[in-house]
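Can't paste images in this forum, so I'm doing it all in text. The chain is below; anyone willing to post the predicted structure tokens underneath?
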Amino acid sequence: MVNKYAVTILFLVPGFSFIGCQPVGSSDIRNRNPTSGVKVELKVAACQPTNLPGLGDAILGVADRVRAMTSGRIELNVQEPGALVPALEVLDAVSSGTVESGFGPAGFWAGKMPAAPLFSAIPFGPEAGEYIAWMYHGDGLALEQRMYSDAGFQVVSLPCALLAAETS
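Text version of the structure:
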């Protein structure tokens, strides 16, 4: 049986990425030796509890992979919903810079952006391969980023986990 999926998103404040985070007090991380031992910690506001299988626990796997890929130089400090901001306020908090990063499905923002469910668990949506192909080779990522930008949100959206499509 083939599972159908949609994407969960990790939001990052512009200027932050897993490739080049600039720690407080540094002049320019690009001029540093990548093995110099500089460590960066990003607090991640989760939209779902991390003990919720398949939805909330995905960010823990992402955090583990980021830690492993960066030899511990980048640490995602995952915060439960409500610890930093309420779950449905994560997008606004990341956009305003109140919170460094957030993790949650785009469908949470349907009230702010009518197209948001297209980037989340789509009823009768495409299978995982088709969905990922659209995101990476069919301008899906560009359309999603444009949706956030056009709505005035200052975030960079990065797909980093998959959710089962609804009623598929």
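The beta strands are 5-12, 40-46, 74-79, 101-105, 156-164. The longest strand covers residues 156-164.
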